[in-house]
Fold each of these.
Amino acid sequence: MIQAPAEDVDATDGLVTRPVVELAGVSRVFGADAPVHALRGVDLTILPGEWLAIVGPSGSGKSTLLNILGLLDRQTSGTYRFDGVDVAELDDLKRAAVRGRRIGFIFQSFHLLPHRSVAENVMLAELYVGAPRRGRRERAMAALDRVGMTDRAEFLPTRLSGGQQQRAAIARALMGEPRLLLCDEPTGNLDSQNADSVLDLFEGLSHDSLTLAMITHDDHVASRAQRRVRIIDGVLNEVHTEPAASDERP
Amino acid sequence: MAVRDLLSECLASLLARPARAILTVIGTVVGVAALVATLGLSKTAGNQIVGRFDELAATDIVVTPKTGTTGRAQRTDALPWDAEQRARRLNGVVSAGTLTDVDLKGQLVRAVPVNDPQGQTQFQMPVKAASPGLFEAVRASLHSGRVPDTGHSDRADRVVVLGPNAAEQLHVTRVDNQPAIYIGDRLYVVAGILSGVERQPSLLGAVIMPEGTAQQDFGLQSPGSVQVETRVGAASVIANQLPVALSPADPTALKVVAPPEPRRVRQGVQSDLDSLFLLLGGVSLLVGAIGIANVTLVSVLERVGEIGLRRSLGAARRHIAGQFLVESTTLGLVGGILGAALGTLVVVGVAASRTWTPVLEGWVPIGAPLVGAVVGLLAGVYPSVRAAALEPVEALRASL
């Protein structure tokens, strides 16, 4: 397991550290008769421990990008190397296995099963990855501990606040130590106080050298990330961080 | 994915909506219960019908001389006088006796004369000669008096037994005042009055006299028929042995009327009932399968978001298909178990209300849950394929 801190990555520029994500010229076209170009020649490299925000207005292609990053969708052209492996060569079964073992998903609407307790929802993460049943609850409790939710382990999600539900979902994504955490508008359904606490949590995870990719349309949320890219009409551009720009916002 | 994980996931999903699971299962419960109940009831009822046949018909053999054989003179003396003794020596014969019509040559039967100008006092009435064992062989029951024994026959005593209808016609109601009747000009003492017979109902209206008496008074040539009662199940064997035992010189001269094989009776009765009942059970099972398929399909459509989540957690298409298949199979299995229990209760209940013995093949209560499971499995195929075909990206757009 490569666990190089972000500073070292900058210095060595990926020579020592293998990038988690390498997109080269990735395009995604929907439909054949009247093709819609959701992504146009996207190049993107995400290094271990990076916290990347992907911003853009709705319909800009950021969801498509996230789906491709999460192996939920296949690009039309270009190459995608995840953890050094060209995933276009993997069949559906192997892609599902990579998704289950190395990628954690966090959704805007949390996606917690309403009839299962928080702990059971977290334990779902180990169902399809071949993890032993033994010790599963302990591992789930450890994940819940990382998000400060151990005292709510036996609650049903419907009895939790939005922020607590998102923390439970993050705990589920953390199970199995994923290489990449993909967050789809993680604060979209939260009030600003809960949103901030979730972003604080991401910051902590990022400091623990977890790799995060987060899509959002909210510049304020994006400004919490260490690195930002903007996607407009399927074209991806790096946003060069100017500390003054983000500090201007209230 | 571990089997235990798969099973516990399915169980948790089903238990999350218990009311729906119960309602879904009802169709299968009814179908399997109908199947089990019909199989059990037809078996039970079939046994019952066979039991009734066994009582009388299956133990009843009548031997008569063959009549009108082509190219050969009719033999009237084919049966020997000791036919009763010969038949009784066979193993499996319970009782036997000879029965012969007596030709009165136009003589009438009348009671002791009472001068009644209005009423009829003389009757043309069947008179039969019986060996002592006949009364047992036809299961005659006595109203009063007694039946003649070997002594009466040997001495050619002039005694008779009256069938109940004959007794009524002749106004003989009791025997303790030693009533007598005339046959032609001869006087016969009425020794007994029958109250009923289970075989040879012609005896009910007849005057029955001992064989020896009929020989002496009416010149009887030979017994006209032999009535035999066998043990249950012995009829077919006895029917083969009787001609040789009764007429060793010419067994083919005798005609044996024996009951059909009991086993064939049973099969005939049951296959009729079974096919009808099984059809009904099959139709209810089909309805149950459609119910499971329907609800599982609705469940797939409702749980699109959950399917998306599971795909994001690393579930392959076959994991999704497997989960819905196992869920529908579990529903079918539970329906099968409940249906088997319910069907068995119905069989026992119906049998108890009719005081029958409930009969159920051993494989029925074991096979019924399996039938339910197969129904659930088949019903789940289409919904599972639909669930597995969902694209994760699309599925994740749905909320949970």
Note: The interface with chain A takes residues 1-2, 4-5, 9, 12, 16-17, 305-306, 308-319, 392-393, 396, 399-400 of chain B (CB under 8 Å).
Amino acid sequence: MRHSILVSDIGELPTSIQAPVSGQGTFDPWRTRAGALGLFLTLGTLGLGVLAPWLAPADAAAISGPALSPPSLAHPMGTDAIGRDLLSGVLLGGRTSLAVATAVVSLALVIGLSIGLLSGFFGGFTDHVLMRVTELFQVLPRFFFAVVAVAVLGPGLDRIVLVLALTSWPVLARVVRAETKSLRHRDFVRAAEACGATPARIIVSELLPNVLPGALVMASLLAGQILLIEASLGFIGLADPSVVSWGTLAGQAQELLRVAWWMPLFPGLAISGASLGFNLFGDALSSHLGGR
Amino acid sequence: MRGLREFVALRRRRTLRTVSARYLAARLLQIVPSCAAVVVVAFLLIQLAPGDPVLALAGEHGDPAYYAFMRQRFGLDQPLPRQLATYCIRVASLDFGVSYVQGRPAAEMIAERVPATLVLTTTALLLSLLVAIPLGILAGRRPHGAADFAVSALTVAFQSTPSFLLAHLAILGLALGLGLFPVQGMTTAGSPGSGLKHFVDIAYHLILPALVLASQEVAVLARLTRTGLVSELDSDHVRTARAKGLVERVVLWRHAMPQVLLSLVTVIGARAGHLLAGAAVVEIVFGWPGLGRLMLTGLQTRDTPVLLGVFFVISLAVIFANLLTDLLYAALDPRVRYR
């Protein structure tokens, strides 16, 4: 099993990706144990998230059994303080958490790709300005920023998504910029320039496809992180109480820890599984692309 | 370990030559926009907050003249840029306002909590280094071996586990189950022991929260050590060292590890925010009286000055951690030449 640095922690891919164009073989995560597990978990989580409304045995917000009953046949994951079915909560809550992660990652990808491509392609003054801006966003402590934002603006998924996206794109932008810079003077870019292609055309049709795989590595690892952060925010009571998510479930479990061990355990395991999937998948993709 | 000491001594001698005064000045100057960005973000958040502060203070259905007076008194009639400037100056002088709940300066309340958080985070960081470096070496010396697989599995699992779950499991298993550790707090209630006894008491309460907080750092740092070592052991200079017939211990510590440790320095600095966020969650679960705990109280009592104060202090810590890392890196790595 080839293993790579968790690029998310350093902010750049371990080694420059070597021409992730064609001729490197197709990416097949099933080949390695870790990659296969990652893909399985990721697809499994996403699948369960999509199918949750049909799979959930009960309405996650409705009382469907005795309060605080331990896992049983009727309630495989037990029930919470007022008798809501925890399995339904985990299934439907996962949907919310995954939606948050997807929204954050998409937003961060759009901003990070744009800034990174522009910065890397034009270089010079543009690069300087954009990178200074990126640094400014990078120093904002993500978790605490989210806490303050929700505390001041009131709970809601929209602001959580916005704050997490605003603090997540810099890492992506830096990876994309580094990649773009290394590709900028390759022959295929020069050839396009010689043919009279406009900068916009070069960026979109020559550079974007080549930096995308690296950005996807980051996106996958980011998704894993966002799931953990959303859960942590919910845990300290900042999730939107009107929507069930893994975060709200974790928050409810906090007070009942000693009474109901199943309440922190099952949502926690779901979060771990999903996050593990994204992490392993990102790593598999990263080592395929030639990270160390 | 002797190799490590020599390495440090060697680098220390080069310090003064590599970090130029110009670089130092330029890097110090970079702090200003970073700090400004943090304050502006906080200011914008307050502006975006729903509700009119004057209505909240003076009540609804009040006298318009009184509203105007209040607006003037709190400077709310000033144009926004001027309000922002005033706010920046206040924050820069560490005046975070007065706590709504306690009526004391928020800065004072925060200052009281900083030591507890510092103790927790530094202990966790040291613990994680002590565990992560040997684990990383164990895994990296024989890549794709059994030890490597075990370490990889362990670290990726820790990395994907939310810290509150880990904290809960630790409490359920080690504190409530086996009764090895106290469940909550920083000291035993009702025993204001002194001197050594007090110290031991705190250390005893510190073990579990520090372990939980360290586990996530261990995951990252061990992986980093492992990956760095694998690529170093594969490099030409290590091959040369081995070809010279050097002992494996010397090859490892004098030739391979220095570069790996250097990358650890950068990552530890870059992860200051993660560490503090993790500490906040751990403090909440274990009732550790640090900044995270203060933040939770501030949240529950809607004490905005305290919350914003915590945000400022944490941001400042992150900015300074980054600064320190850059300077340390410049000092340790002779290849870094700054303009």
Note: The CA atoms of residues 181 and 208 of chain B lie 7 Å apart.
Amino acid sequence: MHDTHKFKIPVGPQHPSLKEPESFSVALRGEKILGIDIRLGYNHRGIEKACEERSYIQDLYLIERVCGICSHSHSTCFVQAVEEIAKVEVPQRALYIRTLIGELERIHSHFLWLGIAGHEIGFDTLLMYAWRDREIVMDLLAALSGNRVNYGINTIGGVRRDIKKEEIKEILKGMDTLEERTLYYIKIATEEVTMIKRLSGVGKLSKKEALRLGAVGPTARASGINRDVRKDDPYAAYAEVSFKVITDDHCDVYARAVVRLKELLESFSIIRQILEKMPEGPVAVKVPRKIPSGEAFSRYEAPRGEDVHYVKSNGSEMPERVKIRAPTLANVQAVKRMLEDRFLADLPIVVAAIDPCFSCTDRMVEIDQIDSGERRVLVWQELRDFSIEWHRKNGIDFSRLNKKLKLRK
Amino acid sequence: MQLEEKIRDDFRQQFPFLEGNITIARPRRISIKVAYANFREVLEFAMTREDLDHLCAITGVDSGENLCFIYHLSRENGLVLNLETCLPKEKPVLETVIPYFPDAEIYERELIDLFGAQVHGLPSGNRYPLTDDWPRGEYPLRKDWRPKQEEPGKEEFKNA
């Protein structure tokens, strides 16, 4: 007898509004996910190959464009490897500026995530609030670097721009406002019943599984793994500042939200310490165009987790090999486990909860009823609406909270 | 450097053939070069006895005659072991390390697509990262591979 409740749903890969496509093939029985098959690579641009045919300084700008959100993470990770091979002593002030930009980037990325997470669960007031607040840090990054993304701060041997005294004042002002807002979001995430109910127990990933599947960053820390490259393998100026590695033992989407929010508080504190302790002096040293033969493996705690770069040089102006492993590639493998035996209605928030960098989570869904041959097409918006409606019927409704919060402001 | 030296000495003691092939490049970075015949026992020792239980990535390198594969393993305290093994380019046949690191699957698929490595023991699944219609025998990260001069669609673009 045919099991007419078995479906296979391809999610992705293409949609006109996407910048980073990927594809999930979800096998369902009724509304339960039986298994998930992930196809990546749609956005493969051959950057590693291109690096071998360009100079180190050209590569720096190319690598900054690996990611539109954590661009500074990639450029710092690469430049650290090159500097290690060339045995360059980078001025302290430059290391502090790299740390400052890195933490501002983490703040903008975590606020971005908070907004997306709110949107995926139907809590659109949170999206509006978080993205409004994010503009504070985007303006600061634009003032410091001239750009909202791809800051172009790094160069081999230091940084390209110094920080002025008046900019320090503006940064501190921005941090105060953002800290106040973050405390408010932490209060909402940890006290508001609707939010707790919607996120708790969803997308479970035990500590054991997170270790086994090689999860990194907030995804791993929300499963109780105390790993953070900034602490374990300090780079830039992280050895000079004190901060806590935020972990949580809930092992679900709720924990991933709490970890990111609390990490924001640590970022504000790191930035204040950096600005207070920043030494005077030059911001760069001159490095010869030819890098001596050698190899280095560099790690960086990007907003999404451990980013790693391997660089091998051959004594010329161009590298022999550049290898990049971005954090999403490490985390995406855990998504399968998070979704197994869960409801389809949880797919949008579980995928969003690893803060994937390949995805804007806006794509087409085609439902193919396996036995009857019946087909229909859903867009991501419909899948999201289905998710929100499904949870509303099950007693989790954000509309009252959305209304309440909008009226208060 | 205490931990690095202790780990180096552990490997030396366990595998005398590694003598001269272990380097400590800097604090928290150890590199070991090992022949593929001994690779698995060294990997297993690193994982089970030295707690190097996180696979950061696998890097493929075309060194001319050989294809080399560097397994970057890390543990608590930020220590990274770069475990390198090389195979002749004509027969780059690896055994999967999924039994040790389930997350290795995607990294191994990358070695297949970009370097032309053969990985035995991989479960069936999608290729990564190249397209399904990518021509057979074309491995972009091999040194002798060059992108084609005439790219598809270029002519149409010129005439547009």
Note: Chain B has one domain: 2-159.
Amino acid sequence: MIPVRSWGRLSAGAHHVIPLHDPARVPHELQTHGPGIAYGNGRSYGDECLNPGGVLWHTARLDRLSYWNPDTGVLTCEAGVLLQDIQRRWAPQGWMLPVTPGTQLVTVGGAIANDVHGKNHHALGSFGDHVLRLWLARSNGELIECSPTQQPQWFAATVGGMGLTGVIVRAELQLRRVAGPWLDTETIPYGSLDEFFALADGSEADWEHTVGWIDCLAGSASSGMRGIFMRANPSAAIRGPMSQTKERYMPFTPPVSLVNRLTLKPFNAAYYYLQRRRAGRALQHYEPFSYPLDGLLEWNRMYGPQGFYQYQSVVPPHARLDATHVMLREIARSGEGSFLAVLKTFGQRSARGLLSFPRPGTTLALDFPNRGERTLRLFDRLDAIVLEAGGTLYPAKDARMPRRMFEAGYPRLHEFLPMRDAGMSSAMSRRLLGS
Amino acid sequence: MKPSGIQLVQAGSQQRRIVIVGATSAIAEHCTRLWIRHGAADLILIGRNDKRLRRVADDLAVRSPASHIECLSVDFTDGAAIERAVATACTGGRPDIVLIAHGALPDQAVCQADLRACQDALTVNGVSPALFVEAFVSHMHNAGPASLVLIGSVAGDRGRQSNYVYGAAKGLLDRYAQGLRHRLALGGSALKVILVKPGPTATPMTAHLAAQGQPLAPVEAVARTIVSGVAQGRAVIYAPGKWRTIMLVIRCLPSIIFHRLKI
């Protein structure tokens, strides 16, 4: 038994970790051990990838690339391959993953199980939209091959299925053609939520990537608020700045969170003014634009030994202005604050998975240092706003949402439940599904 | 599904020739990935299980489509089979790098109770790699500069009650490499014999140690240390490097102290 954490570092429960290394043997492993849950690179924030006291199937060594077709851009690989491996291997040759989340240090299996989205969701949809086929090992020893047309019920349940339909062992992915690894970007400071939504809506047709950072504390100081809107398109450039390849580490866990009441306002202000100076158009490498935090490995340590929560909600289009406004006011009022506040419109796209998070509307993601009860009480108040607006939360980030909130936000849950593998169980599944 | 990258290259190509024995071992696999990242190579993968070799070969072919990859399965305990396999591996030309990486971490208690298990452990971890080295040296000693890399272990530096069967087998490789270096130096050969001593590394072989909570080095880091050590032509590579100091202390401990330690 060894202690295992998820990205939020909220707990370090002992787990029986079983490394998987041969795809052919995975169904047998699932039959012999368990119940358990697949653990890839541990980037989900809460308890989705944890099973304290029980089994974790570690997929990091399922890291073989199996087949690449240079004419069609179709890649078959095992589920433990990191998105970074794929991007760095093929971007120089003009192929990239169509959709990646804000970090490329996640496994292919994790990206499917969470049906992750990126800054280009309104244009290209979520990760599952580009999965052509997947192979799922079940705890009864079966290996199921499924796609949007072959056994589509298994595919729809597994994409976004939080690892609960079995262990994904292999997937076939469609990569997309790009001219090079660069993006034409534009950075625009904004001063109100109205302005943000006008920018986001106005950019959807012509810009593939759109995202807003928001200073969620500035709203309390004055009537205005402030933020930075960023948009980008793949560039036709064949030369440009290279990515910083030197990896830096957060070398230790500080005894208290570096993000706290004293530091948050200056942090946010500094970030705002730094970004505002860079306002305008620029040619950027995809890595710093798409994965700004991957440059500092183990940055999650900066929240100290108590760890942190991420609160990521989505609210439907009609409620977006009011709900976002009220949430930001509630956060400012609570005195808790978030450094990483990210606002993104999802456009009109729905996702393929029965439990996929992305849906038409606006998503807001916030990080909070874990300050125990008072942080949880803030979340309860935010939950009420999100529920009232008809929205929901993202399981990949969640460590605490109440079961009724999950049930309200995922109306196709009843279709998912029969597809679940009884041999798969996580702290999250016990919290949100009762087993 | 036939991987697109496996293709024949024309004779006389200038690609590096690399032979990997025990190519499905995690350390070997990661070293190979690093070597082909620096440029396409002619690879010969030797292993016990053809299906598992195929998986590794497919992965390497996707990573480096210009590399030419051959697989060879062989019984690691049969001296005559080893001799034939090595001769086959050397027919296309003299290898630039040979990595001998196979092994299996035995259960010490089982080896003490069952001599057949003990014999198997000594054979696969000690005798078999030594036979491979001997066979490769006979093909490589009077050609130009090349590296013959053997995976030993820090366990071979001093016998300890908890794993002396494995340690003795790996210690055999240490002496073997030493003797070969002596022989090659006297013969004026440009062939380098390099012994790698990894500390406990996170691989399928040590999965049960991970489960017991023993800290293990990431296999990628161990592979990076090996590949850069081989490029520098060092005779002995500890991976990670801190094990050089740790094992120096352990080797120097007087028995009166050592025998009280439960390590």
Note: The interface with chain B takes residues 1-2, 16-19, 21-24, 61, 64-70, 75-77, 89 of chain A (CB under 8 Å).
